[in-house]
Each structure stands twice: as structure tokens, then as C-alpha cells.
Amino acid sequence: MKATLSASQLPGDGLAEEDMEHPGIALGKAGKYEALDHLDNFLASRPQKQDLLDRNILKADISGSLHAAAAELAKKRVEDALSKYIEKRPDPHELVEHNILKSDPTAELPISASILVAQDQLNKKRLEDNLQTKISRRPSAVELIQANILKPDNTTQQPSSLVP
């Protein structure tokens, strides 16, 4: 069986009753001691200042105005670096010329991406058909040998044995 202590049985710790008061919290004397113990445990397990500085949770001990100036300087450096990269960025017309962009985004009537995809597919199919036509019209090895364009060698078959 657990024995519970009443408020009159708790040892005093030298704190006055009004020092133990917390506004808005109605605690008995035992509850006040538990709250203080909880607070002491919490503060004891709190990380050290150097640990917080190392993990960049706390900023270094510098004045507020100096810290603000350092942050502003860092921000300005990033802005300047980005501005330089943007200035060096090639013009959209150059990108179209180098086939990086399909159409000029600054054009008066830019072409929709879906139309560009369809156009690319159509061009690809047209090139495939054109290549297939040219391959089908290509003369055979026998015809080239008979026209004295291709010289027969020992590794190729003789024209009489080749069937056109």
C-alpha cells in the first residue's frame, strides 16, 4: 500500500508560501513541490550554451546591430552573386539558335508546348519516311560492281553468284 503525505507532513525548504505561487495554477503544497522538481529536472537537462552555439540554434554573442549588419551583408553577397549569374545568362534567341529552346518565349505569339511536340513528331516521321525511300532506291552491291563503282574483292561474292 502506498502512503501519501499530506501538505502538513512535507518538509519545509525555506521558501515562503507566496514564493511558491504560480498565477493561474491552483496547486496544493505537494503539487507545488512536484512542479518545482519538474522545473529543476528540466533545467538540469537543458543543453549547454556552447552546444546550442555549435548546432546554430543560438547566435554568437555579438550585439544585435552587429548581428543584423552581418546578416544583411551575407544576404547582399548572395544577391550580388545571383545578379552576376543572371547577367551572364544567354539570351532566349541564342538558346533557340543552339536548339536548347524549341521556340522563342519572347516572341509575339509563343507556340504552345503541345503543338511543338506534335510538330517534332511529324518532322521525325517525315525524316524516317524520306530515309526509308532513299534506302529502298539505293543500288545493290551487284549493280555497283557491274557499273564498275565497286571493285570485287576476295571477301565478296562474284557478280554471277549474287542474285539481285
TrEMBL record:
Record-level GO BP terms: positive regulation of transcription by RNA polymerase II
Main location, first listed in the record: nucleus
Residue numbers spanned by region Disordered: 1-23
Organism annotation: Gonapodya prolifera (strain JEL478) (Monoblepharis prolifera)
Subcellular location: Nucleus
One of the record's GO molecular function terms: transcription coactivator activity
Protein name: RPEL repeat protein
Residues in RPEL repeats: 80-105, 129-154
Alphabetic keyword roster: Nucleus, Repeat
Keyword field contains Repeat: yes
Gene Ontology CC terms: nucleus
InterPro entries for this protein: Myocardin-like (IPR043451), RPEL_repeat (IPR004018)
Gene3D superfamilies: 6.10.140.2040
